[in-house]
Design goal:
By secondary structure, the protein is α/β, with parallel strands linked by helices. Helices cover 34% and strands 10% of the residues. It contains 14 helices and eight strands. It has an eight-stranded mixed beta sheet with strand order 6-5-4-3-2-1-7-8.
Length: 348
């Protein structure tokens, strides 16, 4: 019998943590443990190889409610990073040589300290990436953000589920496609997406449904051709990201009865090359409350860094985090299936 919400009513028990809920679901499947499968890479365990990306989730507040969102972000979420926690992040960066800062949310721009934080990070001479949903750039109080991004040489990374309105709106909400195109035009007008400008604008593709992304290079060509032909907009690169079987996408899998088939597919397509290049090896993820995680997905499951690593940004110690053992669970198969998946796209 397929695993559905009916067979897992306790998943939504108010006292159950996201981690406990997912473990209850995984227990019903007879799939190999990720740690054992990882040994196919020739390594005995998954460890970090040095931190190159300092990823900061500044909160769950967002102006959209997307079906695939693993953060469960929405306009009514109140979890948001404080100025004090931002300052702890800056202290950690100042004491390290981590070159890239990846700011995400929610809609990270909605955090009242967002602009100040970006400016302070740039003073530390670090490369800043912002994961913007595009439509926020059209909202009252945020329309000058494209100019702010350009002034601070911020790399903009944005989700656009497809180059057609119907597919995009199905995943992200009514009229999101048209508003996204308008926002892209504003970025393009400033030079974003033009190779010679130095202003980087990348798009992200997530499948709409229980399947893996197509070939990244081929899909990028399709996106560039169709978006320029029909809408006159352009970008630098397209990243394909597999939907993780957690949060809202997990709910979809359970409601539609696709969870077991999807997990079985991910396991069957395990790729040792992709596994060796998973993003947690060179990334540290900081939650809105300052706790540390191996990746943004672990953060949503409240799977903090483990095995003796400092767990909060106030105790940040790069010497202990650079080679830490990574905390894994079955959802990690989402990053290692097929061509692999990361915040920077395919990994194999």
């Amino acid at each position: 019998m397929a695993i559905t919400t009916k067979s897992l009513k306790s998943r939504h028990h108010p006292l159950a943590s996201p981690q406990a809920q997912l473990e209850l679901i995984e227990h019903k499947l007879n799939l190999p443990a990720f740690d054992e499968m990882f040994k196919q890479t020739g390594e005995s365990e998954l460890r970090a190889t040095g931190i190159e990306i300092f990823q900061v989730n500044v909160g769950k507040l967002c102006n959209q409610v997307c079906k695939h969102c693993h953060v469960d972000a929405a306009p009514d979420r109140r979890e948001i990073m404080t100025r004090e926690t931002f300052e702890l992040c800056l202290n950690a960066l100042a004491q390290s040589d981590i070159p890239k800062v990846d700011i995400t949310g929610g809609a990270p721009e909605m955090n009242p300290h967002f602009r100040w934080f970006v400016a302070e990070v740039k003073k530390l001479n670090r490369h800043v990436m912002v994961r913007s949903n595009l439509t926020i750039l059209l909202a009252n109080g945020f329309t000058d953000l494209p100019e702010f991004f350009a002034e601070h040489q911020v790399e903009v990374i944005s989700s656009l589920p497809h180059y057609t309105p119907s597919v995009t709106d199905k995943q992200r909400g009514e009229d999101v496609f048209s508003r996204s195109i308008e926002a892209i035009k504003r970025l393009n007008a400033l030079g974003y997406g033009k190779e010679e400008s130095g202003l980087i604008f990348n798009l992200v593709y997530n499948p709409v449904g229980a399947f893996l992304p197509p070939n990244q290079a081929s899909l990028e060509k399709d996106y560039k051709r169709e978006l320029q032909k029909h809408y006159g907009v352009f970008f630098n690169h397209l990243y394909t990201i597999t939907n993780m079987p957690i949060s809202r996408f997990l709910d979809y899998l359970l409601i539609s009865g696709n969870y077991e088939a999807y997990m079985t597919k991910l396991v069957s397509l395990f790729n040792p090359v992709a596994a060796k290049n998973v993003m947690c090896r060179n990334t540290i993820s900081i939650g809105w409350d300052g706790y540390l995680y191996d990746c943004d997905f672990n953060q949503m499951l409240d799977l903090k860094v483990g095995y003796g690593s400092p767990m909060h940004i106030k105790d940040f110690d790069i010497s202990k985090l650079n080679t830490r053992k990574i905390v894994t669970r079955q959802h990690c198969y989402g990053c290692t299936a097929g061509a692999g998946s990361s915040c920077g796209g395919a990994t194999a």
